[in-house]
Specification:
By secondary structure, the chain is α+β, with helices and mostly antiparallel strands. The protein contains 13 helices and 14 strands.
């Protein structure tokens, strides 16, 4: 009889513990319901709740973009903090919020928005290239050490300070500067065309059928000879190279000026005494002589880099004072 009582007491204890634990779960569930999970709110409401983007939110409302950024998306927003707006020249924000300047404000704000999800992990693949923002302009992206830099060397270079703030319709990355649409980049070919000093190169690219290739995603590094560099070739050389019969030779020469990847001047200096393989499969040697970067030193057509780091939407241009000769390949 005593044994049966002990068994009964044991089962009674188990039932009580189960009921107690179940009641704890009920209370926990109530607490969880009071906390909204990360990413449950849209981009605008997430910015409002954060508290560091009051000027950005006010600007979105003034531009009539707040409802758009509450939409389905997904969007990636590079969000300037209040401090970033405060750093603009005195009176700039007040002027932008005026109805008369709404178009300018919209252009600025949509230069901060990309149609799609771009997380921090995705940015590595964009190094040296750009993303086309909602205003139709290309925003240059560079990775320097541990930093993600937008519009590098532009009027308003910005650093990403916080990444991957999740929202229900996209993601926010925090930046320390308000981006300037005037810092938008163009492709390598368009940059060369707009500069005016590289008309012979552009003509050669078209004759070789390479102009579309250099409009591609990249990143590419192009050592661009000036018109003077082409004019320094023996008389008749350029005219002959532009003939259809010599297209293969022209392609070989032009691709000898293109590297598949992004090489900024700082990296080129680090390559002193070495060589890199170009798109024609030949190599150019790189030497730092005093303050100059010299390509194919001692070759048939030694070239000096005279302008560095012309940043483009799909790579970088370095200007050289001579047309490189593939026969100089080490």
């Amino acid at each position: 009889m005593k044994k049966e009582i002990n068994i009964l007491l044991h089962y009674l204890f188990v039932v009580i513990m189960v009921l107690f634990l179940a009641s704890c779960d009920l209370f926990d569930d109530d607490d969880d319901d009071d906390v909204e999970p990360e990413g449950s709110k849209n981009i605008v409401d997430t910015a409002v709740d954060n508290g560091n983007f009051t000027t950005l939110v006010a600007a979105l409302v003034a531009a009539g973009l707040d409802d758009d950024l509450k939409g389905e998306g997904p969007f990636t927003v590079f969000a300037p903090t209040d401090d970033a707006f405060d750093a603009l020249p005195s009176g700039t924000v007040s002027a932008l919020l005026e109805p008369a300047n709404q178009d300018t404000l919209i252009d600025i704000l949509t230069f901060h928005v990309y149609a799609g999800d771009v997380y921090a992990a995705d940015v590595i693949a964009l190094d040296g290239t750009s993303a086309t923002m909602l205003n139709g302009s290309d925003l240059r992206i560079d990775i320097m050490g541990a930093l993600v830099i937008l519009s590098m060397d532009g009027n308003r270079e910005a650093i990403v300070t916080i990444t991957d703030i999740m929202a229900s319709n996209g993601v926010i990355h925090v930046i320390d500067t308000v981006l300037d649409p005037d810092d938008a980049t163009s492709s390598i070919v368009d940059t060369a065309v707009n500069d005016g000093r590289f008309t012979t190169l552009v003509t050669a690219l078209v004759a070789a059928g390479l102009d579309d290739d250099l409009e591609g995603a990249g990143p590419l590094t192009v050592f661009v000879p000036t018109n003077d560099a082409f004019n320094a070739l023996p008389p008749g050389t350029v005219t002959a190279l532009l003939q259809p019969a010599n297209q293969d030779t022209l392609i070989d020469i032009l691709l000898y000026h293109v590297y598949n990847g992004s090489v900024l001047a700082s990296l080129a200096i680090a390559l002193d005494g070495s060589s890199v393989e170009m798109l024609n499969s030949g190599s150019i040697s790189i030497d730092v002589v005093g303050n100059n970067v010299v390509l194919n030193s001692g070759g048939n057509r030694e070239a000096t880099v005279i302008i560095t780091d012309v940043l483009c939407s799909n790579g970088v241009i370095h200007v050289v004072d001579a047309v490189l000769d593939p026969n100089d390949s080490p």
